[in-house]
Design goal:
CATH superfamily of the largest domain: P-loop containing nucleotide triphosphate hydrolases
CATH topology of the largest domain: Rossmann fold
Number of domains: 3
CATH class of the largest domain: Alpha Beta
Strand content: 5-15%
Shape: flat
Oligomer: single chain
Strand order of the largest sheet: 1-4-5-6-3-7
Number of helices: 15
Bound molecules: adenosine-5'-triphosphate, magnesium ion
CATH architecture of the largest domain: 3-Layer(aba) Sandwich
Largest sheet: 6 strands, mixed
Number of strands: 8
């Protein structure tokens, strides 16, 4: 018979949704039953443990953290959701992808780390140009861990009344400790960069100091994800407080291609001059590439065709550039300089989707 400790460990790891630990313990149990000569039982235990490792296996389903609807004052400060996104939805350089996967793994196996006096990294800063997948990454981390995503509404947080912002921040950080989830401080520069703007310097400093202090506190099992387009205006004291700073870039050429193919999966794209299209799309964000693909797909569908032509994609790309230019004109009127697009290496891209299918064809 299995020992009481083994049984408790098994049930506990299942209750905690810790499938890795559950698997390890089930395999240990199988080994000890085999030693006792219970070969059939050992084999059955192994088979069920292996089945639980399969994505669709009953044992692999980890327990989602129940969503806690923010109430009272907190409801103006936090929006709750339960994203189903996964890391594989992101098209990112392999290095970024594996860093995100490591963060997810550390939280999944937090108990194992803690047994060795280590902690999972739970304060992340994602920095990079607009439309490169920062918010989507936070949502994918939540989806992978089956944690709720709590988006902190910064406009609700920043108050024109002295001292109120820090009090509201306190409420948010109390929720971080008490309700496990991914807490997304999107476009953190609004808060952390407040010191450089012309409004009340005393209040801005107080807010910044409270934020720093709160970041130093324990976050329970929650992960705090902050994003910014403007890392250069962030205070160094803030940057130091994050366990990981991930730099997002505009997509490389392979990433542009992967994004088009993924968004146009289900359409016939065999006649597209990809070299030309990718060259023209160089400089667009991943979000713009998705939108250009959707524009092209819309016009193909409306003209009752399922095959996409180069001539559908090029105007769609051009219209994304026009919008970017309008955005840039507005941007120059603001005092903030957007993060300069950096040189883009042809990096290996992690993308697991994107099929090509045939339906009705056009000849051009
Ligand atoms: N790396 C990516 N992989 C896959 N899709 C992406 C990626 N980046 C952007 N997208 C697409 O663009 C949309 C917007 O991306 P997202 O909101 O994550 O960008 P962001 O970096 O947070 O931008 P911003 O700085 O403007 O907030 C996503 O919902 C997705 O459709
Ligand atoms: Mg965003």
């Amino acid at each position: 018979m299995a020992s009481a400790q083994q049984l408790i460990g098994l049930v506990k790891s299942h209750a905690e949704g810790n499938s890795e630990r559950f698997f390890d313990l089930a395999m240990q149990l199988a080994a000890s039953e085999e030693q006792k000569g219970h070969r059939t039982l050992a084999e059955q235990l192994r088979q069920w443990a292996e089945a639980g490792k399969q994505p669709d296996g009953a044992l692999a389903r980890s327990v989602p953290t129940p969503i806690v609807a923010p109430r009272g004052e907190l409801s103006d400060l936090i929006k709750a959701s339960y994203p189903s996104n996964k890391l594989n939805d992101l098209i990112l350089p392999e290095s970024l992808h594996s860093q995100l996967a490591a963060i997810v793994k550390e939280s999944r196996l937090a108990a194992r780390l803690e047994e060795s006096g280590l902690k999972p990294r739970r304060h992340l800063l994602l920095a990079g140009p607009p439309g490169t997948g920062k918010t989507l990454s936070a949502s994918a981390i939540a989806g992978e861990l089956k944690y709720p995503l709590y988006t902190v509404l910064l406009h609700g947080l920043i108050s024109k009344f002295m001292g109120e912002t820090a009090q509201k921040l306190r409420l948010v950080f109390d929720a971080i400790v008490n309700h496990r989830g991914i807490y997304l401080f999107d476009e953190i520069d609004a808060l952390a960069g407040a010191r450089t703007s012309s409004n009340d310097v005393g209040e801005a400093r107080r807010v910044l100091n409270s934020f720093l202090q709160f970041l130093d506190e324990k976050s329970g099992g929650s992960i705090v994800v902050a994003t910014t387009n403007l890392p250069q205006i962030l205070d160094h004291a803030i940057l130091r407080r994050f366990d990981v700073v991930l730099r997002y870039e505009l997509p490389s050429e392979p990433a542009i291609e992967a994004t088009f193919l993924r968004r146009l999966s289900g359409f016939d794209v065999d006649s597209v001059d990809w070299k030309l299209v990718i060259r023209k799309a160089h400089g667009l964000s991943t979000s713009d590439v998705v939108l250009a693909a959707e524009d092209a797909a819309r016009s193909a569908v409306l003209s009752d065709h399922r095959n996409i032509l180069t001539s559908d994609l090029l105007p769609a790309i051009e219209s994304r550039y026009s919008l970017q230019r309008i955005g840039a004109d507005i941007g120059t009127k603001s005092s903030q300089t957007p993060l300069a697009p950096r040189s883009r290496k042809k990096s290996q891209v992690s993308s697991k989707k994107g099929a090509r299918k045939n339906t009705k064809r056009r000849t051009r």
